[in-house]
Amino acid sequence: MGILDTIFGNKKKKIEAALQKDPTVDKVLELSAIYVSENDLSSALRLLRAWSKKFNDEKMRTTLHEVELQERKSEISALEVRIKEAPNSLNYSRLASLKIKSGELEDALRISKESLEKFPQFNSGAHQCIGDIFLIQENYDGAAKEYELVIKEDPNNFQVIKSLCEIYIYKNMVSKAVSYLEDLIKKNPADQTLRDMLARAKAGETLVEEVEEEVLPTPTPIPVAAPVAPVAPPAAKSVAVNREPETSKIKEKQPTLSVTAPDGSVKEIVLKKDEFVVGRHQDADLSIDDGKNFISRKHTVFRKVNGKYQVADLGSGNGTFVNGNKIQAPHDLRNKDIVKVGYYSIQFLGGDSGPALPAFDMTMLEDSEATIVGQEFSYLGKSAEPVTSKISVDLGVEKIAKIAGVNQVIVINSSGFPLHFAANDKSLDEQKASALMSYIYGMIQVDTDKLDIKQVHSCDIFTNKLSVFLYSKNGFVVCVIGSLSCKKAQVDVEIKSLLQGLV
Amino acid sequence: MSTIKEVMLKISKIDKVTGAILSSYEGIIIDSMMREGKDEVMQAGIASHKLTKAKESLSRLNLGEIKQMNLYGANGSQCLFEFNGKFLVVNCNKDANINYVSLELQPLIEDINKILTK
Fold first, then answer.
1. Largest separation between any pair of C-alpha atoms in chain B
2. Where is B31: in which H helix or E strand?
């Protein structure tokens, strides 16, 4: 009976109903197992993510991790098939990006290089992936070179410019960082993060000047026995600039957390307790809130085990990251490890005398998960359910491509680059089509305020050969090209759910 | 055979149509049926610009020659029809069924075309 139940979905319905009445870990795991057996990984993920926030259960976290891996694998194999069928730079970059997330850096590098060989022009996605790989490998010069190439092609790629500026600040090339940041601030005057970065860069600039002055021989001798007063360094310098202020050396003897808030303010906390909980709850030892609900009530714990500190995630919704990697189990902390909790960066100072990591803020890379392909999906890195949103857009594109008469479906970002592409007729160059369709859409918007119709949200174009339907939301343009017999009403039905995914 | 004026009048009487302009790409207005106070020269100029740019882009992609372009806005819709170096702008209110309007317009556009090519 049990097998029959499972086959006919009765068991699933029963568990779903029971879960609503009396939720338990076992029921969640059982239901997720059914979803997985039905190959409905997105439902399994949604379920596990939702309930792992409520139940702090190790088994559930492990299952969630396994399903995530399984989903990533299936996405990778789907992309590999798609690349064989329709090799294009977008699919290559998405595959490379997934490989980076899986930690398969060599594969990711090989794929990105292959993509560049095949598509040497307008391939900022591949350059960005290579840049990200170099950044993880701490090859900052290489990363900067690649990011510069991305910016040449896509001067509005905010995320890459930010990463590049971080590298410049780290490498003491502050003037370059300042010039980029000042330019960005002109374009985005309301962005506080940029202002903070500029302040940090300028602070670095000042420090360079001070150091240079100290090197110059001075006529007056420096008093040898001058007492070393532990003067607190400027907040911005203590984390962002890779220099060793006197105080940090003193504090390294005692385990300390240097907490950088999203607004750039830094707070240092000496770890005195054996267990130190970080979260949104008022009872947490460090109560922090980024205002975006990315921090769970009890998010992360710093625990002293056998004299050494570990960090462990407490089943948070968005996870805890150490040096850019999401942790699945308690992680032994090394000096200067950077733990990311929501938009907060917590640097662990002191304790183990193991090899120190550079002070470069690896969390920048984590944020740039949004950059699956260059400038694409700015929503991904900051969304609670990034993969689901991406999948929903993918599915939406594929659904529209299946409508009778549809030849191509392209989701285009505000810079005119294709983010998603599905084609029944492969004669069209997606890059060129994206650029021109985005141009047409932009041009359609010009002067609409002077017309009665006001802001244009969609447009149909009929030529003697075919139909083109353009839709827009949040700066994205969806372009559907089909034959003259293509039914617009059918496209309109499917487009609604696709547009909802373009956040 | 009807005159352009008569055909334009018929267009303006289609349900939900609020106005129409027949113009050349150079901006010379052949005829218009617009409410008072509406700047038909400016509207024709904007429409001409949009059609020209869209035509250029589509020809670069070898997607054919534009025959019709519908713009859906927050306050209404606009249909642009191209024929023989001239174009027709038809403004509709936001409740208009563009498919229906297009259907009604087809024979009238053929009439205009015949008159202009005569």
1. 41
2. strand B29-33
Q: Is the CB of A454 less than 8 angstroms away from the CB of B18?
A: no
Q: Catalogue the long-range contacts made by A192-197 (C-beta closer than 8 Å, 24 or more residues apart).
A: A192/A263, A193/A162, A193/A262, A193/A264, A194/A162, A196/A236, A196/A263, A196/A264, A197/A162, A197/A165, A197/A166, A197/A169, A197/A264
Chain A nearest-CA distance from B111, in A, is 19
Distance CA B16, CA B103 (A): 13
Q: Give, as one character, the DSSP assignment of residue A449.
A: G
Tell me which residue in A428, A446, A455 faces B73 most closely, judged by beta carbons.
Answer: A455
Q: How far is residue A436's CA from residue B58's CA, in Å, rounded to a whole number? A: 8
Decide if A461 and B66 are in contact by the 8 Å CB cutoff.
yes
One-letter identity of residue A127:
H
Q: Report how far apart the first and last C-alpha atoms of chain B are (Å, whole number).
A: 11
Residue B91's nearest CA partner among B37, B38, B27 is B38
Chain A partners of B67 at a C-beta cutoff of 8 Å? 462-464
Mean pLDDT of chain B: 89
Q: With a cut of 50, which residues of chain A have pLDDT below it?
A: 1, 206-252, 352-389
Place of tokens 């592409």: A421
Where is average pLDDT lowest: A199-213, B42-56, B85-99? A199-213
pTM over 0.90: no
> Does the pLDDT of residue B103 top 50, yes or no?
yes
pLDDT of residue A227: 37
What does the DSSP assignment read for A151-190?
HHH-TT-HHHHHHHHHHHHHTT-HHHHHHHHHHHHHH-TT
- Cα dihedral across residues A97, A99, A104, A109: positive or negative: negative
Q: Do B73 and A456 touch (CB under 8 A)?
A: yes
Alpha carbons within 13 angstroms on the beta-carbon side of residue A99 total 23
Enumerate chain A positions whose Cβ falls within 8 A of a Cβ in B.
428-429, 432-433, 436-437, 439-440, 443-444, 446-448, 450-466, 468, 481
Q: Are A453 and B58 in contact (CB under 8 A)?
A: no
Q: What is the pLDDT of residue A322?
A: 81
C-alpha A158/C-alpha A175 separation (Å) is 18
CB-based contacts of A315, cutoff 8 Å, min separation 6: A52, A53, A55, A56, A57, A60, A61, A296
Tokens describing residue A92: 């290559």
Say if the Cβ atoms of A457 and B91 lie within 8 Å. Answer: no
Q: Tell me, what's the pLDDT at A3?
A: 57
